[in-house]
Amino acid sequence: MTTTRGPVHAAQPDAREDGIRVAVSTVIFSLRRDTGADRARVVLPLVRRTREPYESAWALPGGWLRPDENLDAAASRTLAETTGLAPSFLEQLYAFGDVDRSPSRVVSIVYWALVREEVSSISASTAAAHDDNHDDENVAWFDAITHPPLAFDHDQIVEYALWRLRNKVGYSRIAHGLLPDLFTLADLREVYEAILGRRLDPANFRRQVENSDTLIPTDDYRTGSHRPARLYRYDEAFELAERGPLPH
Amino acid sequence: MTTTRGPVHAAQPDAREDGIRVAVSTVIFSLRRDTGADRARVVLPLVRRTREPYESAWALPGGWLRPDENLDAAASRTLAETTGLAPSFLEQLYAFGDVDRSPSRVVSIVYWALVREEVSSISASTAAAHDDNHDDENVAWFDAITHPPLAFDHDQIVEYALWRLRNKVGYSRIAHGLLPDLFTLADLREVYEAILGRRLDPANFRRQVENSDTLIPTDDYRTGSHRPARLYRYDEAFELAERGPLPH
């Protein structure tokens, strides 16, 4: 077999010539329970583009990578700029770099993140308060499934992030990233149902969770219109999600 | 809480100013059974650098992303340039982009790949034959654990790729990427042992594999110095590895 072998990291390309730029975008998931609704939904914040290409279309929050900034720092920065908040979970999702994904050549390093519900609600109301630092009309939360068509390949990116979320909920305690420190088993089941998009049998769910040994029952109960429900917390000895030996 | 929100994909950065370049590298794993050795080892090809930085150090095969080339095409190209072969499995691993990972600012999109053993042996002997198209002294296969210290952050990258391989072998049929179409249960166990770095009980292994329903027994047997061993093949109805909705 005849092969040719080019230089490996050989010639330094002229940055003025290659024209490839690096952006960082983040898919930020949270839960929202609408008043009167019987189940929670997965929601994500989107940003309305104010210039071409895709002017006025909704897109994932993001920005250009800065020369003095690590990738995960850029993801945290764009996340804070959009939601004003720190995530409970942040992980690199995938690098998207197809030649035709944008009119110019852009490689987007995409992260995904979870923001706890009560926190994202505060953020949404803060954004609604029209303070000087927010251009409120250009950031809004949408249903993760029924959001409008997005700019670039962002529909595909959101679909992939949802797949990762559904996948990960099956073998990690990632659901905790959408819950407060103390929660009932019904709260936890609601998170699973929102992520998986289907109802789960309460008795089966309780049995599986209790057998998993990742939950610690507390002596506290939530009282209200229903009968008191025991509050649980996650055993912090378990990682939120196994991410391998990378130092993040 | 006061937040500032910068422009989102707003100003187009001047490529002459930002100085961030994109490279693609690939961790290519294969198996090697040394003559007389009692177990197989995971090996990978490395390339000796011929210029600064890290001149004469070993590094992962890779190269600059070309403006007209998709990310996975760049990975396949650098893989073919190094081994002369098509992989049985190729997947994006992670984007590495720390500011200090290289003297200049380089974001490396890293892929990992599997090459079947008999194929990588052919490649290695081809490389050893000193044909005109190969700069043989600058490409060599090394043990994936005991290889020499690598340039840049490539030690960390190889460690992460090995973690992904070990992790994936537990829940997918990725081991098939290192086996020929027909194999014995002892062959399959040898792949698992090489990846996991420990001995597996033959009887337990046989039971687990037979219960997994992913293997199809054939009517063929391998004969030789030992008693005849039945040959199996993987059920092609199972994906080599679940990779979500991405069109790769």
Rounded mean pLDDT score of chain A: 84
Radius of gyration of chain A: 21 Å
CATH topology of the domain at 21-179 in chain A: Nucleoside Triphosphate Pyrophosphohydrolase
Assembly form of the protein: homodimer
Helix content of chain A: 25-40%
**Class from secondary-structure proportions of chain A:** alpha+beta
Tell me which CATH architecture of the domain at 21-179 in chain A applies here. Answer: Alpha-Beta Complex
CATH superfamily name of the domain at 21-179 in chain A? Nucleoside Triphosphate Pyrophosphohydrolase
Q: In CATH, what is the class of the domain at 21-179 in chain A?
A: Alpha Beta
Strand content of chain A: 15-25%
Task: Give the uncertain stretches of chain A in residue-range form.
Answer: 1-16, 124-134
Largest sheet of chain A, in brief, is: 7 strands, mixed
What is the number of helices of chain A?
6
Largest protein-protein interface: A-B, 69 and 69 residues
Question: What would the principal axes of the Cα set say about the shape of chain A?
Answer: elongated
Distance between the termini of chain A: 42 Å
